[in-house]
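Lab meeting, item 3. Inverse folding demo.
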């Protein structure tokens, strides 16, 4: 019996399937690597945009974006920029990343009295995800739970969900990156004295703070926040005496990879709009680490990328910092004025 021309035998078919399987197995890692390279490129572009926005903020306001008051406050347009602004550094950058409409949502025309309209507008704002502040290698820009967030912010309505932040601004090389929740009310701000940081460049600390012992620079021994943004800060580029190309501005923050979408990580339990706290600030006291599920930290930089975390410098450039970076080099990069140039 003659075999039909053009037909495959079972053996030939199995061989073809096996070859296709081998090719897929060989190509899949390359495809995954290409996708990750694209995501990392987008992450780098996000940091570049945030760094340039910070420099535009500096051109307009004469200082880098301030850190806000504490975790019980979010942004308020009526209070302007700098030490008077209760919201965090991302809120102050909104007008410089083409999100002026969002920046205006909490405004009610009164910087002192917190109206119902202001609270409603603020709650609408914090529930808005912002693609520029999320790393695509980690999670998409959507709303996530905030189950362990602070009680209802004093100038907003507490919501169970909100936009999240994958980047942190550098507050220095000291151990701690958070302190207090802020004054009892906005009206109490002019007379409130229980700040961790009593001046606007971070060199005078309230010694009654429970975190006082954790605000010591390991490089200089000074008691200070020596980065570029922190509670009520107004740091100008003139005060970045180690050089803008050598000093960290904004980088990727470390997160527990099992808690990306739960809101249960203590470093990720509030929204992107809150004031000075460990959700949106990091220090270089310890080296950065790659995200993993068996470790949590509310203080270090880190990333979902395999080779290191991306860091924007004060000149607007963005570099990759390896996970095995020398600790002294890393600390020097975060301290704006220790007299040590990172890498030298």
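The presenter then showed the designed sequence:
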């Amino acid at each position: 019996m003659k075999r039909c021309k053009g037909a495959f035998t079972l053996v030939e078919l199995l061989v073809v399937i096996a070859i296709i399987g081998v090719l897929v197995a060989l190509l899949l890692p390359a495809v995954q690597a290409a996708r990750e390279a694209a995501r990392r490129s987008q992450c780098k572009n996000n940091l570049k945009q945030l760094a340039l926005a910070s420099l535009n903020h500096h051109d307009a306001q004469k200082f880098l974006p301030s850190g806000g008051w504490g975790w019980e406050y979010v942004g308020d347009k009526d209070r302007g920029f700098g030490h008077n602004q209760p919201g965090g550094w991302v809120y102050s950058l909104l007008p410089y990343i083409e999100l002026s409409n969002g920046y205006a949502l909490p405004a009610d025309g009164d910087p002192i009295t917190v109206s119902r309209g202001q609270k409603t507008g603020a709650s609408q704002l914090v529930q808005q995800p912002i693609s520029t502040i999320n790393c695509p290698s980690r999670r998409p820009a959507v709303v996530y739970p905030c189950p362990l967030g602070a009680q209802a912010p004093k100038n907003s309505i507490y919501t169970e969900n909100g936009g999240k932040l994958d980047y942190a601004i550098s507050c220095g090389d000291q151990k701690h990156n958070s302190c207090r929740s802020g004054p009892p009310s906005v009206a109490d701000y002019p007379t409130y004295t229980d700040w961790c940081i009593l001046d606007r460049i971070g060199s005078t600390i309230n010694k009654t703070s429970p975190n006082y012992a954790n605000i010591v620079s390991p490089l200089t021994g000074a008691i200070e926040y020596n980065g570029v943004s922190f509670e009520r800060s107004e740091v100008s580029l003139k005060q970045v005496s180690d050089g803008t190309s050598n000093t960290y501005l904004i980088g990727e923050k470390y997160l527990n990879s099992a808690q990306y979408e739960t809101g249960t990580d203590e470093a990720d339990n509030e929204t992107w709009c809150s004031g000075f706290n460990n959700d949106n600030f990091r220090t270089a006291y310890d080296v950065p680490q790659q995200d993993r599920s068996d470790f949590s930290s509310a203080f270090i930089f880190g990333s979902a990328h395999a080779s290191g975390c991306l860091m924007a410098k004060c000149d607007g450039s963005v570099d990759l910092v390896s996970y095995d970076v020398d600790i002294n080099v890393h600390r020097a990069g975060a301290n704006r004025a220790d007299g040590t140039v990172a890498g030298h």
